Amino acid sequence: MKHVPARKRKNVVKNIKQKENPVKNVRNLTNQVRQVIIAIFLFLFIQVSAQNRAVVQPKILIGTEMSFSYRSNEFFHGFNFSRISDHYSYGAGIKFGVKSTYFQSTIYPQLNLKFTYLPILQEDTDSKKIISFGPQFQLNRGIQRVLNFHSYTDLLVGYEFCFGGKFRFSHSFSFGPYFESFKDNQNKRNTISSLNYYLSFGLNYAFY
Amino acid sequence: MRFIKSIFFFLFVLTSCQKRENYADIQVIGHAGMGLEMSNSIFHDNSLEAIELALKMPGSNGVEIDVQQDLDGELWLFHDETLDVATNSTGCISSKTSEELENINYLSFHKEKLLKLSELNLDTYDKQKIFLDLRFWKACSESYVNPQILKTALLNLNIQDFENVYLLIPSESFLTIFENEFNVLYSNDNYTHCLSVLSQDTLIQGLVIRNNNVNFDQVKTIQSSHRNVFIFEMRSPKGIKLALSKRPDGIITDDLRATIIQRRTTKR
Question: What residues 30-89 of chain A have any CB closer than 8 A to a CB of chain B?
């Protein structure tokens, strides 16, 4: 019988256990992916912080945005307006639920307020293109007539990534509590809460 | 200016020609509460929270819930054949005791508890319809539940009025066991087979059939024999619109809000 060192035996057992437990394998993979993402962001942050300098920022951004809301199971499409100062931007927008408004003939508007802090801001001097990345806070308030009126409120925190010159592509992901309020069959007000997330993509035009 | 005026006139003519269909008589029933595996259902299907929300929702006419029997004969609300995917446990409802099942919760955001049918006070929802989808197949032991024991458990629930409670029976051999005491609906995907079962059994109140397996004329044929038709499995606005256009007595929907909206707004 071939002698196998104790340490090697342990590794073999560990490998077999890992093979037997697919959930653990997936968890390990998720951890590895998470570590890679953190490393990339740290690298970017260090790079940008090292070269950070005064960037000529536009004063106003006007654009269109498409976002998906998990809890509403709805795509929202609309317009937004942002004002930019040194390292932060704040803006407002109005969007409409695509499924409800276009396919179900009921207007589902949503007002959106957002504030973004931009610690990572880099400009390419040749092409005058800007890359920005930072945390974002959002407040969404929507209203929809199901049979009575239902109001939806989201308080979200996430990130926003922006890239481009005069035309700028933006992407944001945010999550947070979701509240739905409506009057029930007995005319009593009900509020239910849950967790929601938004995934958004936008195209903006910059006015200097 | 003339061009803009003509566009407005054209739009006005176009919208004024649309006739609103009246679907107010079609009942909207929430599938397993607010819908099955839909993100906007908020709570997990067959949980107390989901069922109460669906019954409170203005415009909703009731809920359809899935009933399974445990080892002690207690009735539980659960959709899947096994507990493995949706809960923090494994195995089947039928192979567990009531005590074991009381400690199980769903793996959802709200961690809702598994619900006993006896915990749902059916008498409080007097104007709402409750559809009990009886699950006879026991996946873990690959056998069928004894329908007589299931019937006894249902009668022991101490429900005052069974008028708004409907049983969904998937097997024709079990229909006769329940139809004298309960409102019974036959649940099957084959329309031709359903038609022959309905023609033989006069006590069956109607049929529950998949949206894709029945058309407008077939619905009318069944309704002409004074039976109800309920259609299920619809998620998109297109699917809901299609189901409404068949004019069944009710639709068991996976998107309760969207169906209530669609019933109100659908145009020809």
Answer: 70-74
